[in-house]
Amino acid sequence: MRAQGPFVAILILLTAGALAAGQDLPAPDAAKPPEPLFVRLSVYPTASLSRYDYNNDIDLYEIRIYVEIRRGSQEGPAVADAVITSFGEKLDFFEDHFERKIPFDKGRLPAEVEVDIAAKGRAAVKERFPLPAWLAFTVPRPAIVDPVEDLALAWQFSRFRAPVDVHAYDFRTGKEFFQRDHEEETSTVIPASRLPRSTIIRIYVIQSWLYKRYLSGPDYARGSEVNVIPWSQVFVRAK
């Protein structure tokens, strides 16, 4: 038994040394947080008194949503396999972004938008933001017009009024014949001398500046943003 004493003591010393050395080993890396996403939401409240011709898609109100998602930063790769929904509709992926046109009843237009973003390896992100206004033409209505008379244009905002850009062009040739930028009034007139004959005329009005809000927090990369741009269009047929 006495002969075993030195060996037991050595064993105890070696074990203690191993335990002490183990205390200096680095702890396993904690789970790293997911890489932030660059998100750009572009929302167009759209009021079409008609589309493509003066007599189709009358009073079509839509919210057009476009979502760009990239990993890490604005220069990162597009996240093509994300699942994005808004108003219960799933957005479709096109090349490098998601989009959807969601129609609404004219008498029940939403005052806010909610977007859900689900990407692999991270918790879903939900954003809700107000629509500052809808913009819609009041005149002209879709109709056959006589180009020997001036064509009056007028529009209104559901809430906050803002300057607009007004454009009119021959829908068949694509040639623009009327333009007003940063128009602060809510009406203008296209002189008869500028109106083309025997064609379809497309007129649209779009807010000159957009509503912008930056997104912040650990889920978002720098520069992530929400943009809202109201606009309206109408088609008329010139005799």
Give the gist of this structure.
The protein is mainly beta and 239 residues long. The protein is built from 1 helix and 18 strands.
Q: If you had to describe this structure to a student in words, what would you say it looks like?
A:
8% of the residues lie in helices and 47% in strands. It is mainly β. Strands 1, 2, 5, 6, 10, 12, 13, 15, 16, 17 and 18 form an eleven-stranded mixed β-sheet that branches. Strands 4-3-7-8 form a four-stranded antiparallel β-sheet, with no helix packed on it. The chain is elongated. It starts with a helix and ends with a strand.
Number of strands: 18
What structural class do you assign from the helix and strand content? mainly beta
**What count of domains describes the coordinates?**
1
Rg, alpha carbons? 30 Å
Question: What is the CATH C level class, in words?
Answer: Mainly Beta
Tally of separate helices:
1
Task: Give the distance, in angstroms, between the N- and C-terminal Cα atoms.
Answer: 120 Å
Overall mean pLDDT: 89
CATH topology: Immunoglobulin-like
Helix content: under 10%
- Low-pLDDT ranges: 7-15
CATH level-four homologous superfamily name: Immunoglobulins
- Element-level helix/strand string: HEEEEEEEEEEEEEEEEEE
Largest sheet entry = 11 strands, mixed
* CATH architectural type: Sandwich
Overall form: elongated
Strand percent estimate: over 45%
